[in-house]
Amino acid sequence: MITKTLRRAALVASVVAVAGCSEMLDDTSSKYPPKVIPVTQQNLDLRLLPAPKSRVTVSVYDMPDLTGQFRERENVQSLSRAVSQGGGALLTTALQDAGQGRWFTVLDRTNLDNLLRERQIATEMRRLYRGEDTPNPSAVPPLRHSGIIIQGAVVGYDANVQTGGFGARYLGIGGDTQWKLDIVTVALQAVAMSTGELLASVMVEKPIASTSVRGGTFTFIELDKLLEIETGVAANEPKQLAVQMATEKAVRSLIIKGAEVGVWSFADHRAQQSLIAAHRAEKYGETQIPEAAKALARPDTRNATHVVATRPVARPRPASSAPVRERIMSPATESDGQSDTRPPPPPAEDEVIG
């Protein structure tokens, strides 16, 4: 009787497990719809930064992955990268989020070839169809440029920095827990366009945690028959989210570091001093802050944020002359020899789109 009961229990458990997995696989599209990435605490801290004294125009070219790390897999070789290759997009988004968009005017140079190619097409079309050797600035205006270049990279990815686990089993019932810790490191720099001087730089690391919990039980239902049931769950922190949070932290730290050395400044001086003090305390931790660290040397480049806008030179106007009156024969007057004299139509004006 007991044997039959155990067999039925094992059969029911197997059916429930298979049905649950099948239901989860069949209903994946409705259970996990796409959604906008929610604001993390790190992103909120970046957004809530106090406003600057004046908005800063910066250029971003790229934020490459310099780690050379590939994703680890068992038994097979994988050519997939360990961290996201979209660092440029993460950096431009973080710069736009700083202070709710009040801190930076971001000039995206990550796809500069596409931008220049499109402007070349516009210039060539106007040369072919309008005879313009020099493009009209109202149709192809000068590109904006910045006084500061923001550049960075993912410079480190260390796997299995810490690993551990724990397990126990008693009378065939038990469980175990395993975990590991990886670390991704992001570097960010502000460089003066006019001199090439490095104005400020920061490095930020973000731990990436992975955990696995498993449990199981086994028992003999007959002398030579063993019933074993196992269950478990694993949780891996998304590496893309870790790189995003590290980039946002780096942007926030770079803003504070730039204010500390005088590259730019906050509109509220008290808020600036408070943020600088908190940044120093986080950097040195429990170590006493040296006196030299409280008065950092300023860069040699002054007014690095100042940008002189490019204004097109006014093109000379053609010499004025009396309009030429053409003799146009209308169909209604061709038979009687009369003519219709009207001035030629004015030249077509540039079309303004949008």
How would you sum up this structure, described in words?
- Residues 310-323 have a biased composition (Low complexity).
- Keywords: Cell membrane, Lipoprotein, Membrane, Palmitate, Signal.
- It comes from Salinihabitans flavidus.
- Residues 1-19 form the signal peptide.
- This is Curli production assembly/transport component CsgG.
- The chain is of the alpha/beta class and 354 residues long.
- The chain has one domain (37-289): Rossmann fold, CATH 3.40.50.
- The chain is built from seven helices and eight strands, in the order H-H-H-E-H-E-H-E-E-E-E-H-H-E-E.
- The chain has helices at residues 2-26, 28-31, 41-47, 87-97, 112-130, 239-260, 269-284, and strands spanning 56-60, 104-108, 148-170, 173-192, 198-222, 225-236, 326-328, 340-342.
- The strands form two sheets. The chain has a six-stranded mixed sheet. Strands 7-8 form a two-stranded antiparallel sheet.
- Helix 3 runs parallel beside helix 6 (239-260) and helix 4 (87-97) crosses helix 6 (239-260).
- The longest helix is centred in the first third of the chain and has 25 residues, at 2-26.
- The termini are far apart.
- 18% of the residues are buried.
